[in-house]
Design brief:
It comes from Gimesia panareensis. The chain is of the alpha/beta class and about 775 residues long. The chain is built from 25 helices and 23 strands.
Length: about 775
Amino acid sequence: MMRFPSPLLAFVLYVSFPSFVAAQALKLPDPLPGTAPLKLSVPLDEHMVAGIDRYALQALAQSPQLRPEKWNYDFNSHAAFIESIKENRARFKTIIGAVDPRVTGPGFELLTTTEKSSVIAECPAFKVHAVHWQVLDGITASGLLLQPTGEIKARVVALPDADWTPEMFVGLKAGVPKSAQIPLALAARGIQVVIPTLMSRDADFSGHPEVFYTNQPHREFIYRMAFEMGRHVIGYEVQKVMAAVDQFERLDKQEGRILPVGVVGVGEGALLALFSGAADYRIQSTWVAGYFQQREGVWREPIYRNVWSQLTEFGDAEIAAMIAPRSCVIEACAVPVVDGPPAPKKGQRASAAPGVIDIAKPASVKAEFQRVLPIFEQLGLQQNLSLVFSGEGTGPAGSGKALADFLFGLRIRQNKKLIPPVELQRTASGILVDPNARQEQQFNEMNAFTQELLNRSARYRDAEWQPGKYTSVALWEKDADRPRDKVYDELIGRLPAPEQPVPLNVKTRKVLQHDQYQGFEVMLDVTPEFVAGGILLVPNDLKPGERRPVIVCQHGLEGTPMDTIRADGHSYNAYKNFSEQLVKRGLIVYAPQNPYKGRDRFRTLQRKSNPMQRSLYSYIIPQHERTLEWLSSLPFVDRQRIGFYGLSYGGKTAVRVPPFVKQYVFSICSGDFNEWVRKNADSAHRFSYVFHGEYEIFEWNMGHVANYAELSYLMAPRPFMVERGHNDGVAPDEWVAAEYAKVRRFYTQMGIGDRTEIEYFNGPHTINGQGTFAFIFRNLNWKPSGD
């Protein structure tokens, strides 16, 4: 990596020939020597976020070309092909959260009473039963079973769109076009069909009565808590499909035969059909109606479709390829259009993430289909893959050609006799099913299951990290890089190294002139696409030839470096001008601009990055590395004495950057340290982000990788401090104290308990600047000016 030219010429003149310069005041030119003039037509944060945005979009666009390196297809035989994608299939099930063991259920359980039958409707060809079945420990599936009155030829799981109930999917309630009522067409042909209820896009239950309710779709509310625990609403529902297939196998054993199994879905159900067909090899035929297309624009879709690392390995084509050598039908058709989350109703707060669902463009469908077709062709099974357009791709699901191709995959011959339209009749004796109550039950089950994962997660992390075995610094340092790399790769996500060294290309301009210090806005290149930047504060009493320590002072959410410097205005309430206070004590101060500013402009960076196994901190860590590289080149900086101090989102940075940037000699987390996993996954606590608008905050599987205690372990043996106001609304004291106690114990058992501390003060979400300042001066070996 190319280093910034050093030393700074003008400063060399100053330190070498001090008689040329007034002794009482340091004078640095504008721009700083060795840097170009900084000229920006927009604020630094906007320029920075736009650059990261370009980088992220470029990575998404390039992802199809990079995916082949993750695959090692063997086309020598069908069995060899299946074996060659075994690890890919396992990784796919992991990233969608379909990892928990399913329970062995007693079969499809009929919902009936002593007074009411499970049969809610019927026609000569089949009966419609209200059923449920066991899935996971505490999670069931609930919906309808269409049971043919004659010979059963196959068994199928039919998945409606998330806006449709099972009753709508079979025409018992209005809202679904006749041709899209696919379960009826299947059951009329002697196929046993089960239809599970999906998490809907309504928001009736998305909240808690002791906190508040939100406008988040049910799918998003479950997604948020589950994502933090390495689970997903998608994975839970794929498990429901696989549990239905378990019951199909059970029926086959009872009946002494093996019937073909299929899955079909429309809209959100099509996503689940595609994913289920890829995940479960027992499914012989898959029909995907209204989902399949190029997926590089997934960041525009609802957040409950966000899958960590998906596009590094699995576009729609790669997922469909895992269905081979079995049958896959792609139908381009109309689906319910979603133009955003539901508007808040009375009693709800707006906190849902943006996201839309449109009908797939035919060109996109065709392009993605062309990517998967060669896989089937090389297997000699092109007949097992079909692309059908309903109308021009905007007609209703359930076209005759798609149906025929799906039946072909089930090895069912089409009856030449015309099958009359199905006319279901409601039964007077049928049990009354309340779709709203059923939705609530399904929602509550997923919620409770995820909360139990949360409650058990600390034990899991302890078993993984085994912090008690590190009784010396030497033992820890021998092992520390392994968990450090795991957290970086699995939780944060690592950017690829640039192919060519990137010059720092530093630009500066003077923005502050104070009688005690000078301030320069700085911008430098991290990659050709995006920059790092901030404000450098240099004390005026810097002596010739002197190298001083640096404290990096990090702002919080929607902040700027200047917020940490100003001694007036709204920002002073939180930051107490701690950057200015510290430069007045004689330290060199660098206040970085981090990219978490601009609301949806920065939050969508997370959406654009997660599919590539990246997060906001995938960019922030290299930004800090490059910044320290430049700071270290300055002739007045002691590169061995650079510390970090961040408030709020800057406190998040304190446990996500210094642990991986070893040049930071200490880290102070202010106004953020707490039981972070619970804060992101607890569905019944007012402190939880589950309820709030920061939809970018959730980190994949953090509950099973590292909480704040484990992130803080990675600082050891370097000093680490927490600053905590008793009235800080980020978390209750009890959460903070319990999580920090683990850190304290970890340091103490290694004999370095004097290197970590927590300061409580009677105040809110703010810099206190008492114990932390003492910590800074001690660990930078600095006697502050005036002391």
